[in-house]
Design goal:
By secondary structure, the chain is of the alpha+beta class. It has 12 helices and 13 strands. It has 3 domains: about 130 residues, 2-Layer Sandwich (Dna Ligase, domain 1); about 100 residues, 2-Layer Sandwich (D-amino Acid Aminotransferase, Chain A, domain 1), CATH 3.30.470; about 90 residues, no CATH class.
């Protein structure tokens, strides 16, 4: 209704999840569309529209875009529109107008042309949200964007979330296995306790139920209280070509976490063995060369654990004579 950003905030709030207070300013509330000519927004601004906001002079605000096509499957508009943080009450009006104006910037027009988007169907609504003076903040992914669906990833740093997102703050990354309820972290400082990680895991579950897909959510902790700042879909996860990793059998040789030297050794050995066997079977180096990428990826690794890349094993097994009989036997063995 208002754009993905605003609609998702409303869903979170209505589901009883703590979000900072916010107001959605509709495009039509600010701009008189009958007077709007081209991109000259300021000549079509309505009078006294800002009185409806009911802001407090003792607070500071974030002013964010919520374009009706933003964060979509086909067009994310990532980094295209203006965002303003720590805005004083007296400056909010100007920043809302500036946010709307960013819809007509050259980079946005170029992006829409590239994506084949009709400019006439695009509208800019704006979110005015109370800023949280965070002790620590970060981003919660309800699935690992690299493709591990049963793993939450949390990237967190001290201070505001903006420092984490813009990579200006030193961060710690946590990897939480949703199946086993275990985790590890990478970074100099352990910023989250087990209780906080469990709280984030619970929020991840609620978000999955609420939105029906994997989410990327910004959050902040203030005096021990968790606030969700915004939520959007993880656009890098596509289900059309899933990668199947399986540790059946190989887990006996490489249990637990393997270090990079071990992983590089495993990659080399499995590649060499299966390429050698296939050379003997095929007796055709030209055909063998077509599958070089398969041989290099007989095993995979995620977060230090070693797995078989099952789809590539099927490719190699099909080289063998009587493969229709061999494959069921191999499957039963696994």
């Amino acid at each position: 209704m208002y754009g993905t950003k605003a609609d998702n905030l409303i869903k979170l709030r209505d589901a009883g999840i703590r979000v900072p207070g916010f107001t959605v300013v509709r495009f039509e509330e600010v701009v008189d569309t009958d007077r709007l000519e081209g991109s000259d927004v300021r000549s079509a601004i309505k009078r006294e529209w800002e009185k409806k906001l009911g802001l407090s002079p003792s607070k500071v605000y974030a002013v964010r875009s919520s374009c009706n096509l933003e964060d979509g499957d086909a067009s994310s508009f990532a980094g295209q529109f203006d965002t303003f943080l720590n805005v004083k009450e007296k400056d909010v009006k100007e920043k809302v107008i500036s946010c709307i104006e960013s819809l007509y910037k050259d980079n946005v027009k170029s992006y829409m042309r590239k994506k084949g988007i009709d400019e006439s169907g695009v509208k800019m609504n704006v979110i005015v949200q109370e800023m949280v003076e965070a002790d620590k903040a970060g981003v919660l992914f309800t699935a690992n964007p690299c493709g591990l669906l049963n793993e939450n990833v949390v990237v967190i740093g001290r201070g505001s979330c903006e420092g984490v997102v813009s990579d200006r703050t030193e961060t710690t990354s946590y990897y939480y296995n949703k199946t086993d309820k275990v985790y590890y972290y990478e970074g100099r400082e352990d910023l989250l306790g087990e209780k906080e990680l469990e709280e984030l895991a619970l929020i991840s579950e609620k978000a999955m139920e609420l939105f029906g897909h994997y989410m990327d959510m910004e959050f902040a902790y203030k005096k021990g209280e968790l606030f969700l700042l915004q939520a959007r879909p993880i656009t890098t996860l596509k289900g059309d070509s899933p990668l199947i990793l399986d540790n059946s059998n190989i887990v006996e040789s490489y249990p637990g976490i393997s270090l990079p030297l071990t992983i590089s050794f495993v990659d080399l050995v499995y590649s060499g063995v299966f390429k050698g066997v296939s050379r003997r079977v095929l007796k055709n180096d030209k055909e063998l060369g077509k599958h070089e990428d398969v041989f290099k990826n007989m095993v995979g690794h995620a977060n230090g654990r070693v797995y078989y890349k099952i789809s590539n094993w099927y490719t190699v097994l099909k080289f063998l004579p009587f493969n229709k009989k061999i494959i069921p036997v191999w499957q039963e063995m696994l």
